[in-house]
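New to this. Please check both lines:
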Amino acid sequence: MANTKEFIWELQKLKKDQLIEIIVYKTVQENQQISEELRGFLERRKQDPKPTVSEHNLAAVFAHNLAKTPIPANVDVSSLFLLLIAGSRVSPEVILALRKMLHPLATIIQGYAQTEFCGTNTFYDTNDKDHRKLFTEKPHSVGLPGKGYIYKVVDLETNEILGPNKQGELLVKAPTVMNGYYKGDSKDAFDEDGFYKTGDIAYYDEDQCFYIVDRIKGVIRYLFHMLSSAEIEEILTNHPAVRKAAVFGYPHPVDLHHVTALVEVDETSEVTPEEIREYVDNQVPDHKRLRGGVKFVKSIPMTTTGKVKCGELKSFMEKM
């Protein structure tokens, strides 16, 4: 397979026995709300006898790399009309960069799902014109409420229910949510009203579009501040030399934790850790600066689904 940051552009060359499935055209039902322009585009794809990739799910960590990688001249991605990014949040800049690379009618959206829900927690209907307007205007959003789902965002300290544009833990009650963990203790997974605790910091706006800020375990406590590691990671990955970044709080005897970053950089780059640190520190307020420093690594500890192994970062750095 091609280098991970280029693999999506090689999809059309994959053989059937490889891991990534080649997905062919899906019929659009007559009663679906879809623009005539997009319908015509899909009809042309339907008539194309050559197998093509029309939809693809992509881990967020790869999306960052793809946004910095030009499409090879010999690769045709004109058939790709839906790209769903999931696993962790990506910045609007990444979404906008990918939009410029694909067909003008292609849809790129961020998904939000958990195993405990047997699928997605929030939704966008790509065939609904109102939904399309929202996710086009709000590339950072992960979707709207689903039918039969009940949501609440609560304060991390007081459990007070919060209104629009207030960040707190997202709790959800839904018909698809699990009953509990098999042979495990599930008492702390739900609140007293039966809402599942997602463990994610989120908020919603006046249009009821949801936004994921970070995992609660990704919050860094510096003095009396609660900082989002995902926010700093977004800034880092916007640097042209950075391929991946993982931010965490390294323990400090006085300040509780210092914001620290492990970074993978392009092998051809001559950038230094101090330059990366200055790049971030110049864009954030004083309390969010990388006081723990920046360490270059060959490979950040990742799960098989493309998520950072947050619990291993401190020990990983100490072994360097």
Q: What stands out?
A: The two ends are 29 Å apart (CA to CA).
